[in-house]
Write a structure and sequence with these properties.
The protein is of the alpha+beta class. 16% of the residues lie in helices and 32% in strands. It has a single domain (9-158), classed as Nucleoside Triphosphate Pyrophosphohydrolase (Alpha-Beta Complex), CATH 3.90.79.
């Protein structure tokens, strides 16, 4: 029997135990960053997923998401102004919405490929929970998908200045 993972950090938001944080990164065109995982766990093996990883002592989920995204992708990010922390059916993992602020993709060894994707043209196979998170994010940010131009419009009052 496998031993359960103990949370390594109690978040400052709602005191929820968390041991990993994932960044849902958008660029100014409204595309989302996904990488093909080289990790061997059942959840991510040979699937497209968001960057993310474990907390370091004293970090908030926002800080962890920004740091892990930079380490794994080379992309600089910041949390969207009122970024939600989204939970899924994976215990101990939180998803944070980020916007790209700079940098070029320089993925680490955890990914074999990485790119920006339109919400309506996501690659397959994708981690099931990542697709669920995108659905929640779209509802939260009140985004409209423009099928013809393959972009996502975001209402200005829901995000920080620089995202558009």
């Amino acid at each position: 029997m496998q031993k359960a993972i103990e949370p390594t950090h109690i978040t400052k938001q709602e005191n929820k135990p968390t041991h990993a944080v994932v960044g849902v990164v958008f660029n100014k065109e409204g595309k989302v960053l996904l990488g093909m995982s080289t990790l061997l766990d059942e959840l991510r093996k040979d699937k497209w997923c968001f960057p993310g990883g474990g907390h370091e002592k004293g970090e908030t989920e926002f800080q962890t998401a920004v740091r892990e995204t930079k380490e794994e992708t080379g992309i600089s990010t910041k949390p969207i102004n009122i970024a939600p922390i989204i939970d899924t059916d994976i215990p101990g993992i939180s998803f944070v919405v980020l916007m790209r602020t700079g940098g070029q993709i320089k993925m680490n060894e955890e990914f074999s490929d990485m790119d920006w994707f339109s919400i309506d043209q996501l690659p397959k196979p994708i981690v099931k929970q990542n697709k669920q998170v995108l659905t929640k994010v779209l509802k939260y940010l009140d985004k409209d998908i423009d099928e013809e131009r393959s972009i996502v419009r975001v209402k200005k009052n829901t995000i920080s200045k620089g995202f558009l």
